[in-house]
User: Fold this.
Amino acid sequence: MLSNKEFFEGTPDEYLSHKEKYENAVKKSVQIFGLVRKLQEEGKMVLNNYRDLLGGLLGAAATRDGSPLGLHYIMFMPAILSQGDDDQKAYWISRAWNCSIIGSYAQTELGHGTFIRGLETTATYDPSTKEFVLHSPTLTSYKWWPGGLGHTANYCIVIAQLYTKGQCHGIHHFIIQVRDDETHEPLPGIKVGEIGAKLGLNAVNNGFLGFDHVRIPRNQMLMRHAQVLEDGTYVKSQHNKLNYGAMVFVRVVIVFDMVNYLSKAVTIATRYSAVRRQASIKEGKPECQILDYVTQQHKLFIGIAACHALRITGIKLWDTFNDIQEQLISGNLERLPELHALACCLKAVSTSDTAANVERCRLACGGHGYMQSSHLPLTYGIVTAACTYEGDNTVLLLQTARFLVKTWQHVDSAKLTPTVAYLKTAASKCGDNWENSVEGIIKGFEIVAMRKISSCVANMQNRVASGMCYEDAWNITSVQLAAAAETHCRVIIISTFYEEASKAAASMSPALRTVVTQLVELYAVYWALEKLNDLLRYTALTKANVDTLQLWYEELLTKLRPNAVGLVDAFDIPDEILRSTLGSWDGRVYERLMEEALKSPLNAQPVNDTFHKYLKPFMQGKL
Assistant:
């Protein structure tokens, strides 16, 4: 891809119209996935390569503002793999794998998003013709947001309420052809188009989709878990949560996607901070690199550490996902709720942390970070979108909280699954003295999570006992519940980062081991200082301990400073992918800023036509 210079040339995207951005993205996506197709044909696209494709090339590199082919790989094919029976997989995956069809995934509607059970699109089975009739009964039932659906995809997996023999059986997956294979015209009864400009991801071609009694064959309902027989008899799934496999998968992918965007942002801001000089720390000395200011280090180094923490945790989540998928195939559903809870909170925390860190990077670059050519505003627009797509973060944290509440209610009698096993042991550690170490911080967060969860359960029980219904008790406790879920997620990330880095350290050189240890410590201490209120409230942390934590944190910033540029160089992001005037490896910040400025169409002529048409008459009083 990097050898194809045409891919990186032409007018910068920010000067293109909305329509031109999309057309340019299609052109470049076809070039990119032509290379992917070649890898597939050569047999080089194995499972982990596919993960890297989804979380790297596709998400953060293919085009600056997303790809209209994204959902084809991220959701269309994975949904068929997780929800289709053997015959359906054999037929559809072979067509989708080589892109002879392009698919999207339509779940969210104009009037319903995260509340999936409230979706309004219907799929009614007609046994006389052995067909499903797809219909959008209201304006709010129109599908809204699916990537690539506007003008790119010709097939789509649609989530709809299944009706057969007069009964509704909840949401199910259906494969619908939306455009003609040859002409690409919308098929009869299909109302499809693009939803318009957004803060970011404008090349993704998000679309809307409505149905006017569109008929599809019975075998286009994905029937791995639930089936509709020819006479309309409904065969229920062994476990209705199995239908959410594709959503869990995409949340795993999002964690990797966030790491790649954050890696780009911290690379840009750290390199710029090594070039930019401003004022001097000591009077009479030359202007110093702004990276020498501890406040700048405070803004940036947590982002570098977070890249590693989230990537390592993402790998663990990926492995957990695959392990549990194997168990599901053999009929063991024991860990499915745990997987769902883990994917929900990691998606929520990874996206919110990334959005916050990317914005810190932008602010760390001062006014130049506001330039589109820095690539930081666009990156922020993309990552902040992830805080609401594929599940609003607040709702996802409450999903995790629901699992934690059920777990706590049986904490004494049940065998706990791995990610919540600490809840049983944390209670016995509450009286322990605070220990200023990574292990001590992890223990502190475990106690906080346990106490927050137990407090939520107690509060809800008291409210129910006083006459409040359970649903109202849950709603009024929901701020605490979301906070408990976030703390639980902090336990998972910090402990996983520490454990996995410690295992890997054995094979590292002493110098590298030192730096990796510093990153782990920085990540743990940063979050301890950020969550002092919780730690002071629920653990034995003292003011003296806090003072020690603060000194430790400042020492870590100073120790990491000499390696800062090396750490972001280690992400190995080529300039062509970084696409930033501020972050290129050669440090030519000011030259690149001027070169990009001269590409503006407004600089194509020395005097703009508006001078003679509007300004001159106005200035001479001749309106």
Summary: The chain has two domains: 11-237, 246-566. Residues 243 and 325 are 13 Å apart (CA to CA).
